[in-house]
Design a protein that fits this description.
The chain has helices spanning 30-34, 102-111, 131-146, 152-170, 182-197, 204-210, 215-226, 230-248, 253-259, 265-276, 280-287; strands at residues 25-29, 40-44, 49-57, 59-64, 67-72, 75-79, 85-89, 94-101, 122-125. It contains eleven helices and nine strands. The protein folds into two domains: 25-170, Regulatory protein AraC (Jelly Rolls), CATH 2.60.120.280; 181-287, Arc Repressor Mutant, subunit A. With 289 residues, the protein is of the alpha+beta class. The longest helix is centred in the middle third of the chain and has 19 residues, at 152-170.
Length: 289
């Protein structure tokens, strides 16, 4: 699947419309937008919107940033805000697409005792024994979202929480927020700060000051929790964004460097080659072969 995308943030693929400020959750049938675009959705990304694709019939080749996956129904694909994603659907695939505003998602997670964001995409198969339950839940969400009624917000949040609980149970790598140590909480705060500020601040000292720990302690707890020091985690986010631009954006490497906070394009080239093993130009060419 060879796809070219748009790194500018959009609310609705293929439309100029915006996700209204009061809209907490938008729900539509998978066929609605996919069929309109001949079952191919070019890579794009959203700001402040997390999407859940509940695929009940058919299958898809999905691109999540620079990775590609091929999956058959029934499956749930979760795509956090900011992640580039594109689809090549099997014709007549069926399912539901939930676009959830970040404040509503965070509120639903907080109500479950989880105070971290959904910040990594993941794909979870739906066991046959649970397919009817997930299908019914999606139908209720779609019905409630599209038919205004009294207490609608409370009902949407309750239904979304049920779906989130199912997803959390389905993921074997989940760890409840209440069970996190102080060090784990600090590392998660650090990772969230990186996602928000990596194009502005590359120095570990700035992040350490923001979460009220010393630079040495931040490096120590990062190594304990992730096996990498703080600077390596910052570089990982920078590299992921650089790869997005190189794969999906038609812009000079020097402009990509500037957008990522590098004042010297030459230094960006050396940084990228040292971490990836090839220059940005070679990486771009190989990704398009």
């Amino acid at each position: 699947m060879k796809m070219f995308g748009n790194l500018e943030f959009v609310d609705f693929y293929g439309e100029d419309g915006a996700f209204a400020p009061h809209t907490l959750l938008y729900c539509e049938a998978l066929v609605q937008r996919s069929e309109q675009h001949n079952w191919t959705i070019q890579p794009h990304r959203h700001r402040q919107i997390t999407q859940l694709f509940v695929v009940l019939e058919g299958g898809v080749e999905v691109r999540l940033d620079t990775q590609q996956y091929k999956r058959s129904a029934p499956v749930v694909i979760v795509i956090p805000q900011g992640v580039m994603h594109g689809f090549d659907w099997q014709a007549e695939s069926q399912g539901v697409v939930l676009s959830v505003a970040s404040p509503m998602l965070q509120q639903a997670l907080s109500s479950l005792g989880l105070h971290r964001r959904v910040d990594q995409p993941f794909i979870t198969a739906i066991p046959d024994t649970e397919r009817d339950f997930v299908t019914q839940l999606c139908n209720l969400l779609q019905q409630e979202a599209n038919q205004p009624a009294i207490y609608q917000e409370a009902m949407l949040q309750a239904l979304l929480q049920q779906l989130l609980i199912w997803l959390l149970r389905a993921r074997t790598d989940n760890k409840e927020e209440s069970n996190l140590s102080k060090s784990e909480r600090k590392v998660r705060q650090f990772q969230q700060l990186i996602e928000r500020h990596f194009t502005q601040y590359h120095q570990v000292s700035w992040y350490a000051n923001e979460i009220r720990v010393s630079q040495a302690h931040l490096n120590q707890i990062c190594r304990e929790q992730t096996g990498e020091n703080a600077l390596a985690l910052i570089h990982k986010v920078l590299l992921n964004e650089a790869k997005r631009y190189l794969v999906f954006a038609d812009m000079p490497v020097a402009e990509i460097a500037e957008r990522l906070g590098f004042s010297d394009p030459g230094y960006f080239n050396k940084f990228f080659k040292r971490k990836v093993g090839t220059s940005p130009a070679v990486y771009r060419r190989q990704s398009q072969e």
